[in-house]
Write a structure and sequence with these properties.
There is one protein chain. By secondary structure, the protein is mostly beta strands. It has one domain: 60s Ribosomal Protein L30, Chain: A. The protein contains 5 helices and 17 strands. The longest helix has 12 residues.
Length: 269
Amino acid sequence: MALDEQLIGALHVSSGARGDRPEAAHRAFQTSTLTAMLDGAYEGEITFAELSGRGDLGIGTLNGCDGEMIALDGVFLRADADGAVTEVPPQARTPFAVLTRFEPRHRLTLDPAGADGGDFDSITAAIDRRVGAPDIVHAVRVDGAFDLVHCRSVAKQEPPYRPLAEVLAGQNEFSFERVEGTMVGFRFPNLGLGVGVPGYHLHFVTAERDRGGHVLGCRWGGAGRSLECAVDDLADLHVETPPGVEIAGRRLEQGDIDALERDGDARAD
């Protein structure tokens, strides 16, 4: 199909069918849209074997909105409703994922003894301050020791599917204390297209890769240890749109954003 292309500030957004564009560094690939997920479109056709050619770092979910997906170093992992992590089989499918071939352009060391603070907001503020460029997508990886990481995940849903806000109202929340691990994800600009959540959307997995989930908040620096952040600039976003899904569908409302990223660090206190 022909590409529907838009220039949104410094970010180039395009949509198309499967296979329209190959993976490449400094480019984000997304399957489906956030608003489609919000409306209960939890069945996708792309397998993780196919997705592996699109990038090696990212986030998403599995068909049926089955847990939180973490792509790290080319390995696809799934955090279930209790935060237990297992590797995703290649034949599994996804209704929504965002990936990139991660080649960071920025490397930051966050020092808890300095001005970087010690919570989730301090991490994102440091990236905002040092990386800038709020009008494009950024891929983010944060490695280190955390005093606490507060996460969520959801159980697999069954048809007829409920809207995502209703599913997340019953999400399971849990915390990991005194743990080493990695946060991965993206910072999206506010496109007004319902493509991605404006701001930061990060998932976490422990260094042992056995626990994880969607990050709601964190604390770090209690032992005086720093965090290492790597950030890539992604000025090109390609959205693979399945049948019936449009890149410029309904717009995100504030209630949608609140449901997706609700309470954040307040729950990590």
